[in-house]
Fold Major facilitator superfamily (MFS) profile domain-containing protein.
Amino acid sequence: MSRDHEQNASQQESKATDQKNDSIEDEQTGTNLPTPYSTFSSRQKKGIVAIVAFAGWFSSLSSFIYFPAIPFIATDLGVSVEKINLTVTAYLIASGIFPSLISEAADNLGRRPVLIATLCFYVAANIGLALQSSFGLLFFLRIVQSAGISGSYAVTYGVVGDLFTPAERGGYSGVVSFVLNTPPSVGPIISGLLMSRWSWRAIFWFLSAISPLCLVLVVLLLPETSRQVVGDGALLPRRVNRALLHALTPKQQRKESLLSSPNAKRLYFPNPLKPLALLRRPNTAIIVGSVGVWYTIYSCLQASLSSLFTQIYHVSGLVSGLTYIPFGVACAISALSMGKILDVDYRRTAARYGLNTEKAKNHNLNNFPIEEARLRSLKYSLLVCGLLIAGYGWLLRYQVNIAAPLVFQFFIGLSIQGVFTALSTLLVDIHLDASSTAQAASNLIRAELAAGGLALLDLILRRIGAGWTFVLFAVIGLLSILGFVLAWLNRIYLSG
């Protein structure tokens, strides 16, 4: 039998299986109806996304609310600013390592117990940070704080994969990205307002006051969504995976469903190396590497903003905090719009290949060019972003009026955020059975690359200046487009 004949037979068998699995028989008419991807109602899905996005919000907020306080903490503790900056590096390193330890547990044991445990650590760390008075405790508790909250990012995107089909996943990923990208603009403002009335400790008391609210919402309302634990939502999980209140829980759960599940009987030890094992897949490595490169550029843009504007334009501390607003607002706008663009691109790609575009139907992505659907608009966004970053550096180099680099910051935010929304969605698409683990792999690589980039940032700025520094960043970022082309060609090769 020829290879083409085998392939056609395989595709026909796969299509028939998909049709069988994706349909149920109507008892009255005898006709096949599409099987819903999830038994959670639309209202329940939105409520669940709101809760997990709120939890993920603290991961970004904990960084951006801290930046303006660094010189004040240094003065109060009697250490140098450079030494306090080590706590930023330690936070980034920890935020890359700890999600790798908990992500597989979130996929296999469930999102709910993992999120409850990590939020408890986070609340305790915030209280400790507000009370401590030594650099050693500050350093240690920042690591604990990062360990507690950094995993929420992977859990949040894992829940998106649990609840939504590929056809609607982009839009909800955009909503999540919108929430996760408000801290760059609101974090420094909250920090400035708190410190104008109280000391830097008020920042951690603020986090200590609002993070328990998120914990209470999770304990009371968040149902289990992991598809390895509750399937489409109809399986009844163990008690620890059940919400105390059932407002967001499907009514169709069957009490006998989980009794034979292996996850319900065995003691489970997460494998911290499993996220790295996913990088053996070429397309996963390309996606994760690209996220890491652009997140490093993103971090360097934000970390240098206050110091460069203070040095070049001699702005005050309050104005320095306000300079974060254009970039943060643009990222939030871009997250929502890119989510909609991803859904449109998915439908157009499906229509081009004559595939089903129903949002409620779970599509078999093994025979679908998902990389083409997610990356088709991204390459244009990256090209624009690279040019803007290079231009931004030279505006600072020649000390053009402060309004010009702030305008460039806004448009950089619009274009760079699309990278994270599109690639995070694509990671979920190609790792649906281990979406939190895939996000943890991405988080590990991006955090460690960003930590390295930030460690070298001041040295590079001193050696070659702002103009050439940001040209270098732009060139490195644009090289990722070649990686996307390779990912696309690899998909064509595997499917052909």
